[in-house]
Amino acid sequence: MAVTDAERDAMSRALALAAKGPRGVNPQVGAVILSPAGDVIAEGWHRGAGTAHAEVDALSQLAPGAARGATAVVTLEPCNHTGRTGPCAQALIDAGVARVVYALDDPGDASSGGADRMRAAGVDVVAGEQADAAHALIADWLTVQRLGRPHVTVKWAQSLDGRAAASDGTSQWITGPVARADVHRRRAEADAIVAGTGTVLADDPALTARDGDALLPHQPVPVIIGSRPTPQDAAVRRHPHPPLFYDTRDLTAVLADLHDRGVQRVFVEGGPTLASAFVAAGLADTVLTYLAPVLIGGRRLALTDIGVGTIAQARRLTVDQWLPLGDDLLVVAHVTSEPEGS
After folding, report:
1. Using CA atoms, how far apart are residues 322 and 330, in angstroms rounded to an integer?
2. What pTM was computed for the model?
3. Using CA atoms, how far apart are residues 74 and 67, in angstroms rounded to an integer?
4. 190-246 pLDDT tens trace
5. What are the residue ranges in the chain where pLDDT is below 50?
6. How far is CA 157 from the centre of its chain?
7. Among candidates 274, 278, 268, 296, which has minimal Cα distance to 169?
8. Regarding beta strands 286-292 and 151-159, do their DSSP bridges make them parallel or antiparallel, or are they unpaired?
9. pLDDT at 342
10. What is the per-residue pLDDT across 105-132, written as a single tens digit (0 to 9) for each?
11. b/e per residue, 108-141, with b = 16+ CB within 10 A?
């Protein structure tokens, strides 16, 4: 049976409800319950880990038996596993829902299968309604499910000859104001911003996302990696979010902990040592390189050793975008291959 106009409108509403939920360990999901006549009788969305899933949130607004014969419109396939909450597929079956329309299949090994469970119970199930919009809403969460860790963007600014700083260590500013504004906009899109202790001690960065002197509405959580202590009066300690400190060189362990905290997007701009470590470990998913039309020379390279001893080991990238920013140029690329023998 084709999706009705009422169901299509309900999916648009469910997507809007889903966007109210927080980004985190669980996906943003919205649900709308329609009566057999096509009228909205309940709405719900997921409010974070440990709270009711969207379908159960909507069902909780109805009296016992009120959902019998109804249609549930959900942005993600109802889950099929028991975690902090029970399986939503079974909750819909128990409520007597006759039809379920959802946008995206659940990608989880444990949580998928809800559609088959409901069909086996006699529920009419339709998948794929407004799938593109639903995918766009939770694209970061889906990426985390695929990678098993947060998505990592590694950013650096460099001169045309590949230097990140002059011989005396000065680096402010290689790029111009338009490029720096673009960096802050991209910081605001991340959940966490990562720097090494060397950068913190040398530059005392605030690690905030700003529009001029004003803080942008969303601020990434500052993450400091390294064994050297951060001074009590460091600018990062005045960040709107308390910094997270990791006294380790195990970047995989850092990302695992950030994953457990619900971080989906990590923005690394902690200097050549840290950027090189993420690239060398194969943990750079996106690379942002801001190229300034200046020549500096010297030994302070934007990247140091990344484990490439011969050209066959080079990290191959695909350029997604060449973006002029004032006098500078931003190269946005993603990794397309690991070095031979990796």
Report:
1. 6
2. 0.79
3. 15
4. 999 999 998 898 889 999 999 988 999 999 999 999 999 999 999 999 999 999 999
5. 340-342
6. 23
7. 296
8. parallel
9. 46
10. 998 776 788 999 999 999 999 999 999 9
11. eeebebbbebbeeeebebbeebbeeebeebbebb
Helix, strand, coil shares, percent, the chain, to 5: 30, 25, 45
Q: Which candidate, 309, 304, 331, 310, places its Cα nearest to that of 320?
A: 331
- Of 218, 219, 257, 263, the closest CA to residue 49 belongs to 263
Q: Please say if 55 is a catalytic residue.
A: yes
Helices assigned H by DSSP within 34-164: 54-59, 88-94, 114-120, 131-137, 139-147
Q: Could you say which of 55, 77, 129, 269 is catalytic?
A: 55
Give which of 299, 276, 293 is closest to 198, Cα–Cα. 276
Exposed, middle or buried, 107 (CB in 10 Å: 0-12/13-18/19+)?
Answer: middle
Q: Running DSSP on this structure, what letter comes out for residue 170?
A: -
User: What Rg value do the Cα atoms of the chain yield, rounded?
Assistant: 24
Q: Which amino acid is at 128?
A: G
C-alpha span between 10 and 4 (Å, rounded) = 10
Q: How many CB atoms are closer than 10 A to CB 209?
A: 22
**Residue listed under structure tokens 């942005």:** 75
Q: What angle do CA 162, 163, 167 make, to 5 degrees?
A: 155
How high is the pLDDT of residue 112? 81
Do residues 105 and 112 touch, judged by C-beta distance below 8 A? yes
C-alpha distances (whole Å) from 228 to each of 116, 154, 245, 249, 303 are 53, 22, 10, 12, 21
The H-or-E segment that residue 124 falls in is strand 124-127
- Single-letter amino acid code for the residue at 82: T
> How is residue 89 annotated by DSSP?
H
Q: Are strands 286-292 and 328-337 parallel, antiparallel or unpaired?
A: antiparallel
